[in-house]
Give the backbone structure.
Amino acid sequence: MKIYETTGFPNPLRVRIALAEKGATNKVIFVPVDVMGGEHRTSAFKAKNPDATVPLLELDDGTCIAHCNAITEYLDGIFDGPSLTGTSPKERAVIAMMNIRAESGLMNAVGAYFHHATQGLGPDLETWQCPDWGSKQKEVAQLTMIYLDGVLTESDFVAGNRFTVADITAYAGLVFAEFAKVEIPENLRALKAWRDRVAARPSING
Ligand SMILES: N[C@@H](CCC(=O)N[C@@H](CS)C(=O)NCC(=O)O)C(=O)O
């Protein structure tokens, strides 16, 4: 199978971490996509992923799966190793809920700030911007950081007592936040300690 991606971008990072956690990085072929050059918006790429985003998973039978959560769901199902998306219905539901909070409240909010309230990827790619909405999303991201700090005061990981896809999403969200200069509010000690623990995992640091 192939993963179309762009090195250094935050969403591809999520899938890279998931693959490494499953010990499966060497089971896929990575295909570079030149996002800065607009390759993801060509008709050839949009035939595979009409959303024009990376990462994109292409299976050997030609099935294309876009969006990190869908890709991680598939990788988690086919590769051995600790489950990232949960096993029992209750565990899966809690992980899914926390993952949605991390994605919409942090990852996507930082993305909206970056693309709408800063120069983002530059004038060739940022063809429509709404700065007010982007600035509001920075607030959303920082409120989510405060929320996650509270969660991590009570539990070791974002969705309970073990590492899951919700940690991957939240971690990539903080990486993106640092890049986009969305500061972590003062005194969020639990969030910062968790970030440092996650950053030291072999799937990220190795
Ligand atoms: N919801 C998507 C988001 C993917 C996404 O936005 N990827 C960025 C790179 S980190 C991208 O392709 N951006 C292209 C653009 O902004 O035109 C996912 O989970 O994969």
In short: The chain has a mean pLDDT of 98. The radius of gyration is 17 Å. The longest strand covers residues 2-5.
